[in-house]
Design a protein that fits this description.
By secondary structure, this protein is an alpha+beta fold. It has helices at 5-11, 34-42, 46-49, 97-104; strands at 14-19, 22-28, 61-70, 74-82. The strands form 2 sheets. It has a two-stranded antiparallel sheet with strand order 1-2. The N and C termini lie far apart (52 Å).
Length: 114
């Protein structure tokens, strides 16, 4: 049993899909695709669950950073966030992601802005 659809397609000969604890589909893996598996899992095409609503052209930036640094925490951070975007900060522990988030909220002042 797995939700890693790419692994399912590589490692199996046959697929069985459950939805709400009920068996809803079985077929050979050769007939499976990720869109078909998702459709069977959620009961409708993914586009109906999460329709694309993003504008083709992004608007003006709502937040823009260019080369900001906080000594001993992070350095030379640059990005722009536009209306309608969902942004996540990711990185290993100690990479400065938490510190950058705190600085964005004003807990740490920038020490360098070119």
């Amino acid at each position: 049993m797995s939700h890693r659809l790419d692994e399912i397609l590589k490692l199996t000969d046959r697929v069985a899909v459950l939805r709400d604890g009920e068996l809803v589909a079985t077929y050979p893996t050769s007939e499976a695709s990720i869109p078909r598996l998702v459709r069977d899992m959620v009961g409708r095409p993914l586009e109906q669950v999460y329709p694309r609503t993003r504008a083709v052209q992004p608007g003006a930036p709502l937040l823009e950073l260019a080369g900001v640094t906080r000594a001993e925490m992070f350095r030379d951070i640059s990005f722009a966030i536009h209306a309608g975007e969902i942004v996540g900060l990711a990185g290993l522990v100690g990479a400065g992601r938490s510190e950058l988030g705190r600085a964005l909220y004003g807990l740490y002042p920038w020490t360098a802005v070119p």
